[in-house]
Amino acid sequence: MQASLYKISQHEGGGPESFLNSQEERYRDQLRGYRDTMQLLDPDREIRTALYFPLLAEFREVDLS
Prior knowledge:
The chain is an alpha+beta fold. Helices cover 40% and strands 15% of the residues.
């Protein structure tokens, strides 16, 4: 089973790396909640989290350990 959730964020000013870092921090707790919920549904599966920014062509795995 694969689950995907989508959100929209706008990059307004600052450098792209700064924006990506801020989005990672912004969504860290929410991603942790999603991961924990999925882990309850399938305890034996490795659950990984990531953010994808198509307009920046950036896929960023978020390590929650």
